[in-house]
Amino acid sequence: MPKLHPIIHAAGAERQHPDWAVMTEARRRHTRRVGRLLWEWSRTLGHDRMRRIRWRAAGLLHDALKDESPETLGLEVEDAGAWPGSLLHGPACANRLRAAGVEDELLLTAIAFHTTGHADFGALGQALYMADFLEPGRRTLSRERAEQRRRMPSDWHAVLGEVATAKIVNLLRRGIPISPATAGFWRAVTAPAGTIR
Ligand SMILES: [Fe+2]
Ligand SMILES: [Fe+2]
Q1: pLDDT in tens, 119-165
Q2: How far apart (Å, rounded) are the C-alpha atoms in residues 38 and 21?
Q3: Which one of 59, 82, 134, 189 is most buried, by most CB atoms within 10 A?
Q4: Which ligand places an atom closest to the C-alpha of 130?
Q5: Ligand 2 centroid vs 62 CA: distance in angstroms?
C-alpha cells in the first residue's frame, strides 16, 4: 500500500480531525469510538500497522462534516438532490478528502456511503458501516449491540446482515425511500459469502 496521506495519518495515528471538520464535542467522541472499534477489528484480523491506521482514520473522518448545514453541504455534492439532507455529510466529506489529494478509493467510498451502504464496499466500507452502528456510545438496543460487538470480527458476514437489516427496517418504518445505493448494498450483503475484498 502506498504511503498514507497526511490527513489519513493524522486521523488514524494521532486521532486528529482535519481543520475543516465541523463537529460537536460529542460527535468527535463518537468518531473516536468508531475508530477504536475499527482499530481493534483490524488488529484482530492481523493487519499491519499502516492498515490499522487507515481503518481507524475512516472512523475518525466519517462524520467530519456531520454538523455542517445541509444547505452548505449541498453546494459541495454534485448529485445533492439525490441525497436526503441528513446524509450529505458522507459524500461531502469524501469530496473534501479527494480535493485534498486522498486517492484511496475504497476509503473514499466507505466514507461517502457510510449511511446508506454500497455494493462496492470493500472490507473497510463494511467495517465502518457496522462500527458506526455498533460503537458502545449508542444507547438504543445497547445489550444486543454489545453482543454483536463481541462476535466481531469473526462472525463478520452474519453481523453485517443483522446490522443492514436493522438499519434498512428503520428506514422503512420511518417511510424514508430506499436509495439505489442501499438497494445495491442489500443485494451484495445477501449474496453468497466470500465476497469481502
Ligand atoms: Fe454519519
Ligand atoms: Fe457516525
Answers
A1: 999 999 999 999 999 999 987 778 899 999 999 999 999 999 999 99
A2: 20
A3: 59
A4: 2
A5: 6
Number of neighbours of residue 6 by Cβ within 10 angstroms:
12
From ligand 2's centre to the CA of 59, what distance in Å? 8
Going from the C-alpha of 146 to that of each of 44, 68, 119, 123, 152, the distances in angstroms are: 17, 30, 26, 21, 10
Write out pLDDT tens, residues 76-93.
Answer: 999 999 998 999 999 999
Name which of 91, 106, 99 is nearest 55 in CA terms: 106
Distance from residue 171's CA to the centre of ligand 1 (Å) = 15
Q: Which amino acid is at 20?
A: W
Q: Number of C-alpha atoms within 13 angstroms, CB side, residue 147?
A: 6
Distance 192 CA to ligand 2 centre (A): 28
For residue 38, report the distance from its CA to the centre of ligand 2, in Å: 13
